[in-house]
Amino acid sequence: MEAMFVERPTDDVVPCRASACLAAEARRHETTKEWILAQSCRGATPLAWRVFVVTIFFSAAGPLRAAEWIYNPGTGNSYLLTASQTFEQAEAEALSYGAHLVTINNEPENTWLFETFRDQVGPAGVAWIGFNDRTQEGLWVWLGGAAGGFWMRDDPSSTSFTLWRSGTNEPNDCCGGEDAAEMVFIEGPVGYWNDANTGGSKPGIIEHPGPPIPALGPGGQAALILLLPAAAVIILRSRDRSRRMAPPRG
Ligand SMILES: [Ca+2]
Ligand SMILES: [Ca+2]
């Protein structure tokens, strides 16, 4: 029986030279360019690949940059060191991830944070943690919630773990008011705490429950959620259409 051939519309499918296709397949797609060429040879449209490539580009660039979360097996939570900013701005960034500035529950967690971020805090030498007495002077609570406990000087009912620097009688609410705590990295070896003015600029430590969240920030996640499924649908539909246009076997 004579095979039937259907002509492909020339504006729909990427033209492909047989030798280039074979060469790309033979090298097992060693480069992204060869992989895209091989996929194009199979019938995916230029539009599908434009959507795919643009999505990947914007997912990796600028405001969509990857966030580097570090997992602590001891607490089962993930941590991120922010850029330098005020206490309020650092907490706002934490909220954008569905998290808060860190709640430190015990000395092992404090030691892990000190050793993990000691080389990353930069010249500031300090980083915001979630402990603060913004609501009531002298009553220290955690942004992460009541489970972290509270602390007041000379109050035996205090429930929170603390590691205030003792040499300068911290927290001392110095210099017109200090209502947020920072971990001090430049005085070892354990990462003592100091209260500081909330308007100061320094990195903050964010704690997110559970294992590392997806590497992309909120913008990148939104882009992937919206664009990658669209690219996949376009690619699958174009390949399906190409398959229907292909000559029958035999
Ligand atoms: Ca204070
Ligand atoms: Ca202080």
Describe the protein's architecture and organization.
The chain has 250 residues and is of the alpha+beta class. It has 2 domains: 18-64 and 219-245, no CATH class; 74-208, Mannose-Binding Protein A, subunit A (Mannose-Binding Protein A, Chain A, Roll). Helix content is 33%, strand content 14%. The protein has helices spanning 18-26, 32-41, 46-60, 87-96, 107-117, 218-245, and strands at residues 70-72, 77-81, 100-101, 126-132, 140-142, 150-151, 180-184, 193-196, 205-208. A 5-stranded antiparallel β-sheet has the order 6-5-4-7-8, with helices on one face. Strands 1-2-9-3 form a 4-stranded antiparallel β-sheet, with helices on one face. A hairpin with a 7-residue loop joins strand 4 and strand 5. Mean pLDDT is 79; it is low at 1-17 and 60-66. Bound molecules: calcium ion (CA) (2 copies).
Task: Describe how the helices and strands are arranged.
Elements: H1 18-26, H2 32-41, H3 46-60, E1 70-72, E2 77-81, H4 87-96, E3 100-101, H5 107-117, E4 126-132, E5 140-142, E6 150-151, E7 180-184, E8 193-196, E9 205-208, H6 218-245
Antiparallel strand pairs: 1-2, 2-9, 3-9, 4-5, 4-7, 5-6, 7-8
Helix pairs in contact: 1-2, 3-6
One calcium ion (CA) is lined by residues 170-172, 174, 178, 194-196.
